[in-house]
Design a protein that fits this description.
Number of domains of chain C: 1
CATH topology of the largest domain in chain B: Four Helix Bundle (Hemerythrin (Met), subunit A)
Chains: A mainly alpha (about 700), B mainly alpha (about 170), C mainly alpha (about 100)
Low-confidence stretches of chain B: none
Shape of chain B: globular
CATH architecture of chain C: Orthogonal Bundle
CATH topology of chain C: Helix Hairpins
Oligomer: heterotrimer
Distance between the termini of chain C: 55 Å
Radius of gyration of chain B: 20 Å
CATH class of chain C: Mainly Alpha
Largest interface: B-C, 92 and 73 residues
Number of strands of chain C: 0
Largest sheet of chain B: none
Helix content of chain B: over 70%
Number of helices of chain B: 6
Structural class of chain C: mainly alpha
Number of strands of chain B: 0
């Protein structure tokens, strides 16, 4: 099978799985997850084959695997859609396939497959536990099990479509499908009001970004007449776009398009100011958080910017905006993360912060660094989320054991000492945490973060460099805080004492992802690391060839290396130091209200945007316009019709039709009858008289007609 | 004015006068008697018209049977023989007008006929009017059928009259 | 000698008088008297037309005889009816015999 055909086929199994589960296997939980995992496995297999062939192909950047077809006829040409795998696409396909497969397997265990059905479980609510034959409370299976697998299959389809597409249209299609699945999955437990609100918030916020992105796509199409990468990235087209200027902010066409597309990324990848949806999205089940909000969907935003880098990098103003937003987001959300107590919230803000890193890298032109961090982040963030899910499961065991449902199994201050009770989770979470912090040499995060620092430093963007360094320090700090509170020390509550390790379906993916979290970094070791003359970084050579001009590797700088070491190790150390003896929130000095309440951004948005929108909708449009004006007009029509009806009835129908014609004919007939009746008097002389009179009358008439006329 | 004409006028006056008396007398017996006078005048008229048989039949049948029958009927409705109030009903003036109009209409219609004033032709000699009448009445290619039917009619009237007036006490 | 018109005028006048009698008299028997006058007028008409037309055509006289027969039967039946009504209703005034009305 040719590679191109295989690429076309990669998104296919998940969408088939979606339809099969929805239409046929919804009742059967085992069949549903088998279909879903089978589909993920098939896509994984296809992706691996394509990846292997891709890395074996020289000059993949110049001649990517590509195949396209005519789709929509437009005037004198066709809008083409198709698939393309160049080096960037290949590495992204690699991590997407692995993380998707791992998360699918994890979901089987997370939703307690094999457990009995719950005592009071209802679809739409989280499972609450069942009583087994010994009278113990055990976790219960998720009532909406098949639905979950259907949705994540649809999601996988969307992501694969986005990755393999060779044009912005199908990329946008995959983008939106993932947005839909995000809504469906965040609001998975739809009976919970907070989940519903979070789903709507996520959809609305990303929608704001998507509108601008669509404007950008439209502008691009009208400027170039095509949406395919191969047509847009031709140097002639790029040159034209870079030189044509637009009236907005003095940007060139390329800059404006880039800015508009980037606003889509601000929404999708939760950058400031559209980051507000991602922490609330933690309402969804943990596999959802892992897949959508760590590994794949939010990465799609960054992937799109990386993909459009040749276009976006043409205008320095746009690049500055991107760098600024990325950097600001990185530091901003890192400061919030240090004050969060929910284990998933910390990771959510961490995601926002790391995406900020990638965006900042792109803003300063570090193309390969951003791609590298994208890949490594996907692995270790997915690992961290899945690990937190495992921890939560363990805590829920404890909650079911003690029966005290008021204890929040996600609050880190209720945990502690879990390293002995959940060893696999502990070690994998530790690896993930170290990768996130950038633990030197051993973890992938170190190499990718180091690349970003190098890029920022050698590009001369010192502000960016310093800010990112501070953010990296905070990252290490809150990560260690998280690990300390959760795993180290002694269990602080009864529930934590009774936690135990989760089944293999959950720990196996953790192990696999941990392997990648460690190993993947080594493919990107820079050429002149530590002044040694190593082989050129495979990752840099491979991914860099996607661009028309291979970017140069940043030269090694001891300052950068030192900064990386200091912030990573220092952050980890201080995090452990500060929290090893903390047992209650009151002892946590960093529980600053401003940070804990996310700088009150949500409240600000609510006041400035949401409430006026509600007022506009509820009062203005609904009460005044809809009910008052439109319904009023309709009521007027109704009243007018009613009055006309009454007038017609009272002035025409009753007097003329009823009385005059109806009653009138009756009266006339009666009158005639009454008056003609006496003719039949029974008196024969009268009859004779009448007949004679008539006879004479007719005689006279005949005389008149026949004789005179 | 010939003698016949004067005779005719007298007879005519008698007829019309007694006819008027018939229709205006209060006493019904008197009316019947005046009717007899009228019928007698008509018989004379028939004689003037050389219909001798008819003249005799008129006297025998009309006066001898029908007028008598009238007198019988008047007597049988004895209680009402004495008149209470006027004998003419309320619309007698309208009736008079109608009668006059009828007479006028008839007169005018007849007058426009051009044979109105012709005179009688003489009888052919040896014309046996009565014999011819008899022959006409019984001859199959003449009027035997109406004759027979008239007798059936009389039978029917006879039976009917008896039946209607039968006193079933 | 005597023009036909005289006979015809006579019969028309007799007819009109008889008509007046039929229309105006209260007593039912008197009405029948009027009818008799009318029938006699018809007879006069018939016979005078016979005499003043083709004398050999006996139709005029024959018709007059038929009229006799009819008049006789009609009077008989009519009077029988009047007597029958008188026995029932005790009246011979035509205006009071008005059951066949609306």
């Amino acid at each position: 099978m040719t590679t191109e055909t295989l690429i076309w086929l990669i998104p296919l199994p998940p969408i088939l799985a979606f339809f099969l589960i929805v239409l046929f296997t919804n009742r059967n939980k085992a069949l549903s997850h088998s279909v879903a995992i089978g589909a993920a496995l098939l896509s994984w297999l296809g992706a691996m084959i394509v990846f292997v062939r891709a890395i074996g192909t020289p000059d993949l950047g110049k001649t990517p695997f590509a195949s396209f077809a005519n789709w929509i006829p437009t005037a004198d040409t066709w809008l083409k859609i198709g698939v393309q795998i160049d080096p960037l696409g290949a590495v992204v396909l690699f991590f997407v396939a692995w993380t998707v497969l791992m998360i699918f397997i994890y979901s089987v265990g997370y939703h307690n497959y094999g457990q009995p059905a719950g005592d009071h479980d209802q679809p739409g609510l989280q499972p609450h536990g069942a009583t087994d034959e010994h009278g113990h409370q055990v976790p219960s299976i998720e009532p909406m099990y098949s639905r979950f697998f259907a949705f994540i299959s649809l999601f996988a389809f969307g992501m694969f479509t986005l990755v393999v597409s060779d044009n912005l249209l199908t990329l946008f299609a995959g983008w939106e499908i993932m947005g839909l699945c995000s809504y469906l999955l965040i609001g998975f437990w739809y009976a919970k009001e907070s989940a519903r609100n979070a789903a709507v918030k996520a959809f609305m916020t990303t929608r704001v970004g998507d509108v601008f992105m669509l404007l950008g796509i439209a502008f691009l199409y009208s400027a170039t007449g095509s949406l395919s990468y191969r047509d847009i990235f031709q140097s002639q087209v790029l040159h034209t776009l870079a030189t044509v200027s637009t009236p907005i902010f003095g940007l060139s066409a390329a800059g404006l398009i880039g800015l508009l597309l980037f606003i889509g990324t601000i929404g999708k990848s939760a950058q400031f100011p559209l980051h507000v949806w991602l922490p609330d999205a933690m309402e969804g089940p943990t596999p959802v958080s892992a897949m959508i909000h760590a590994a794949t969907m939010v990465s799609a935003g960054v992937y799109m910017v990386i993909r459009m880098f040749p276009l976006i990098s043409l205008d320095p103003k746009t690049m500055t905006v991107i760098a600024f937003i990325g950097t600001f987001t990185a530091i901003f959300s890192a400061t919030i993360a240090v004050a969060q107590n929910d284990i998933k919230r910390v990771l959510a803000y961490s995601t926002i912060s790391q995406l900020g890193f990638m965006i900042a890298a792109l803003g300063v032109g570090a193309y390969v660094a951003a791609a590298f961090h994208l890949v490594t982040h996907a692995f270790f963030k997915a690992l961290l989320f899945l690990g937190s899910g495992s921890v939560i499961h363990g805590m829920e065991h404890g909650v079911l054991h003690t029966g005290d449902h008021k204890v929040d199994p996600q609050n880190m201050f209720n945990m502690g000492g879990l390293r002995k009770l959940m060893p696999v989770t502990f070690w994998t979470f530790l690896i993930g945490g170290f990768a996130l912090s950038g633990f030197p040499l051993l973890t992938a995060g170190f190499w990718s973060k180091d690349e970003i620092f190098s890029g920022a430093f050698s590009n001369g963007s010192f502000v960016v460099f310093v800010t990112l360094a501070v953010a990296a320090f905070l990252t290490a700090f809150y990560t260690m805080r998280q690990i300390t509170l959760t795993f180290l020390g002694v269990p602080r509550t009864e529930e934590a004492k009774h936690a135990h390790e989760t089944p293999w379906t959950m720990t196996l993916p953790l192990v696999v992802l941990a392997i990648f979290a460690i190993g993947y970094g080594w493919v990107g070791i820079p050429q002149d690391f530590l002044g040694l003359h190593l082989n050129p970084s495979w990752f840099h050579e491979f991914v860099g060839s996607t661009l028309a001009v291979m970017p140069a590797e940043s030269p090694f700088s001891w300052i950068v290396f030192g900064t990386s070491l200091v912030v990573a190790l220092g952050g980890l150390f201080f995090g452990w130091l500060a929290y090893r003896n903390v047992t209650a929130p009151e002892q946590d000095k960093l529980q600053i209200p401003l940070l804990k309440n996310k700088y009150y951004i949500d409240e600000l948005y609510s006041f400035v945007l949401i409430k006026p929108a509600y007022w506009f909708a509820e009062t203005f449009v609904y009460q005044w316009l809809d009910k008052g004006l439109i319904d009023g007009t309709l009521h007027l029509f109704g009243k007018a019709a009613n009055s006309i009806g009454l007038v017609v009835r009272n002035y025409f129908d009753l007097p003329v039709i009823n009385r005059f014609f109806g009653d009138g004919t009756a009266h006339a007939t009666q009158w005639f009858g009454r008056n003609l009746r006496p003719i039949q008097s029974g008196r024969i002389q009268q009859y004779m008289l009448v007949s004679l009179i008539v006879l004479l009358a007719i005689a006279g008439l005949l005389y008149y007609l026949l004789v005179i006329v | 004015m010939t003698a016949m004409q004067i005779f005719f006028l007298i007879v005519g006056l008698v007829i019309l006068g007694s006819a008027l008396m018939v229709v205006t007398t209060r006493n019904l017996i008197h009316a019947a008697l005046w009717l007899i006078v009228t019928l007698f005048g008509v018989a004379v008229l028939f004689a003037i018209l050389d219909a001798s048989f008819l003249a005799v039949v008129q006297v025998v049948v009309y006066i001898g049977a029908i007028a008598i029958l009238f007198i019988f009927a008047v007597m049988l409705t004895h209680k009402e023989m004495r008149d209470r109030g006027p004998q003419l009903n309320n619309s007698w003036w309208l009736n008079a007008i109608i009668s006059l109009l009828t007479f006028g209409g008839l007169f005018w219609m007849l007058q426009s006929w051009n044979g109105f004033s012709k005179t009688a032709a003489d009888f052919p000699s040896s014309f046996d009017a009565v014999g011819q009448l008899g022959k006409a009445l019984i001859s199959p290619d003449a009027f035997v059928l109406p004759f027979e039917v008239a007798s059936v009619l009389l039978l029917a009237a006879l039976v009917g009259a008896v039946y209607i007036a039968f006193n079933r006490k | 000698m005597i023009p036909l018109s005289w006979f015809l005028i006579l019969s028309a006048a007799l007819f009109s008088i008889g008509l007046f009698g039929v229309l105006s008299r209260k007593n039912a028997v008197a009405i029948l008297l009027g009818i008799e006058l009318m029938l006699n007028a018809v007879n006069i008409n018939l016979v005078s037309f016979w005499r003043y037309g083709d004398v050999s055509q006996m139709a005029g006289q024959v018709f007059a005889i038929i009229v006799f027969a009819v008049a006789a039967s009609e009077v008989a039946v009519g009077l029988a009816l009047v007597i029958s009504v008188y026995r029932r209703r005790n009246t011979v005034i035509a205006d009071e015999i008005d059951l066949m009305k609306w």
